[in-house]
Write a structure and sequence with these properties.
Helices cover about 30% and strands about 20% of the residues. The protein is α/β, with parallel strands linked by helices and about 350 residues long. It has a single domain, classed as Alpha-Beta Barrel (TIM Barrel), CATH 3.20.20.70. The strands form two sheets. It has a nine-stranded mixed beta sheet. Strands 10-11-12 form a three-stranded antiparallel beta sheet, with no helix packed on it. α6 runs parallel beside α8.
Length: about 350
């Protein structure tokens, strides 16, 4: 017999569902089931250094070994033999005036408020510490972050991240957002979260009712492959959009996952269908243990050529590299200009020669 749950009872069931899924997450290769189990052999050393966590929802998206979902979630022996990349590629530790707050740009900060995620991405920029004892976030560190923002009036934009801030209890997240909104110089609050992709049932009505109190509030989420655009993800993004929260996606260019123009175009189109604006495609950060994910920049430029002009501008995000050493984001654009004289000559998206008389 099927029962239709409404109101608070349905919400309690929803809350229990996402929490139950988190508790059922697998945290070691030996827990991979069926035909996947053999592929996890010999990976315990990887997990000892870089934790593994895959909740049942995201695990269920894996169709075969080494498919794009598997590659993002399941440890790989190559994580321990990376001799190219760096532990802290963006120099976040040296840019932290107080623990768990990164002040790289003049008018905005990155505020880390949670050390846990609903799935540990194998390419994570903070792979060195997310999900480990090396990332310590306490009530005291959050108060110190709020105090720094309050004492630094140049900060008008705060990006709340982690770990994943949407895994915090509703009440704790409410307190943090309330604390930020009480600072007069903070104009914009952004949340960086992968929850709509990897654990969409966490986006409950209760959570959304809290978030909508703190406009202008923006959410940047993170989808990397069309397989992740499930009905559950669409429902989560729909709830957020219906609450007036603008949604953007920060996709990472990953070898063997989305380094193909047709795959990326399908992803960008699919994001727009669920009301998420493609915001960035990032060249993968040079994070220690992730070198096997990195592609050439020319691969990214080829993908951008396949988007710009060939589909709506809404589906063409900014392709960027976050420069190692804390240099900041640098946009990368295919070269269209042939000659930059009084008459600018260039090729259009189809490769046809065009010209434009430059203004004096």
């Amino acid at each position: 017999m099927t029962y239709l749950l409404t109101g608070k009872r349905a919400e309690r069931k929803s809350m229990a569902q996402w929490q139950h899924l988190l508790k059922k997450s697998i945290t070691s290769p030996g827990q991979l089931a069926g035909g996947f189990a053999a592929q996890g052999a010999g990976l315990d050393g990887v997990v000892q250094r870089y934790p593994m966590l895959i909740n049942p929802y995201y695990l269920g998206l894996i169709k075969e070994v080494n498919d794009p979902i598997w590659r993002q979630a399941v440890p790989d022996a190559r994580e321990l033999v990376d001799t190219v990349c760096f532990e802290d590629p963006l120099a976040e530790e040296s840019l932290s005036p107080v623990p768990n707050l990164i002040h790289k740009y003049p008018d905005r900060v990155l505020f880390l408020v949670n050390s846990q995620c609903a799935m540990y991405c194998r390419f994570c920029t903070r792979k060195r510490k997310v999900g480990t004892e090396r990332m310590v976030i306490t009530a005291e560190s959050i108060l110190a972050g709020l105090d720094y923002i309050r004492r630094t009036p140049a900060i008008r934009d705060v990006l709340v991240s982690g770990g994943d801030p949407l895994l915090l209890p509703d009440e704790r997240l409410d307190q943090i957002l309330s604390g930020l909104r009480a600072i007069p110089t903070v104009e914009i609050i952004r949340i960086g979260t992968r929850v709509p992709c990897v654990l969409p049932m966490r986006v409950t009505r209760s959570l959304v009712s809290i978030l909508k109190r703190y406009h202008p509030l923006y959410i940047n989420t993170h989808f990397n492959h069309p397989t992740e655009l499930t009905p559950e993800a669409a429902k989560a993004c729909g709830r957020l959009a219906d609450a007036g929260i603008p949604l953007g996606c920060q996709t990472v260019l990953l070898r063997g996952v989305n380094d193909d123009p047709q795959v990326m175009r399908r992803l960008m189109h699919g994001l727009l269908r669920i009301r998420v604006k493609p915001y960035y495609i990032f060249q993968a950060d040079m994070t220690l243990g992730t070198n096997h994910f990195r592609t050439s920049i020319s691969t990214g430029l080829t993908i951008m050529r396949s988007l710009i002009g060939h589909t709506s501008g809404l589906a063409a995000p900014t392709y960027a590299i976050d420069a190692p050493g804390g240099g900041g984001k640098i946009p990368l654009v295919p070269e269209y200009i042939i000659d930059r004289g009084p008459t600018v000559k260039f090729k259009n998206y189809c490769g046809a020669l065009c010209s434009y008389e430059d203004g004096a």
